[in-house]
Input
Amino acid sequence: MKVLCVCPIGIGNYLMFYPACRVLKRLEPHWSLHLLGLREGIRDFARGDPLWDGVHVFDPTQMKGKPLRRAGVIAELRKERFDASINFFPGNKWMYNALPVLAGISRRYGFDYPYHPVHTLPFLLTSRAPVDKSAHDVRNNLAVVAFVTGKRPGTVEYEFPSLCDEADLDWARQFLRRHDVRNAVAVHPGSSADHGMAAKRWPASRFGYLADKLCRRLDAAALLVGGPDENGLKRAVAEAMSEKHMVVEPVSLRRTAALLCLSRLAVCNDSGLMHIASCQDVPTVGIFGPTDERRNAPMGRRSLVVRKPMKGFPIWTTENVGNRAVPPDVDPSASLRALSVEEAWQRIGPWLDRALEPSDSA
Output
């Protein structure tokens, strides 16, 4: 059977969907799996991965005003003659449900989301798996695999894609040598800004003060990482710091992954880079505000979630996947603005020694 696996938008979503696809291939080794990503950046990690017999990208941000390009991708999908599609969690938008129909796929699997207004086109799915409202996104994705195959996956050791190769690691080692960095703390003060997600960002100055504490504790230098649209945030972190640091100019995702891989520690907002660090078994601190760590906490064994407990938070949970509306009179960044550096340090400080033990004893 030939199956189109529809990945939710972000890099972090790709990493939370990948373990389920590995399990799907283990349960049904003769099935041919193709990936459909809705962001071009996913192609960087998926290309060359033997899990995928094909990698397709329909990135609406790259196709505005380009109807022929959109039609070309849909024609490419129709040519493949897929037997089935699976919309993985949290793909609760009209585009995820419409694309398999446009691709001519007759069996279309997805989820029965608690939030399912008609404009998300849930009726286009032919089979819908129940959502576990208390589960991490990875667990819901494993559940839809069991739903589709009728087979229980059993105990699962999460498998993640290769995020960087030896050439990327060589580049990262040379970068660190060139800047005389022996111990690195990676700091990512940004996040996706789509659909109001900039509210996930802890104030940049506090990242700087926290990075100073970590650098002093670990005798390290801070690597301030992020994309081209986050240069201002990185500079703001740098201005707040007194310990050694460097603003890393934007590089490819694979080279960024290599820098994270070689870091002793990563401190991030809830972001794709948080997941990239954690999936490589880098000790990772995720600072959470409006999003729900029950759904998308970092997945590595050496990870810590820091949040300020506050009534009404988190805002965006499994109950309202697909709905980014904010309740009236609620500031989605309020809990992050209320989280002080000292409060964060009270959680991080005691955790550090355990987290920095070698991985096999973590």
Remarks:
- Residues 84 and 350 are 48 Å apart (CA to CA).
- The mean pLDDT is 95.
- The chain is about 40% helix and 15% strand.
- The domain at 166-361 is CATH 3.40.50.2000 (Rossmann fold).
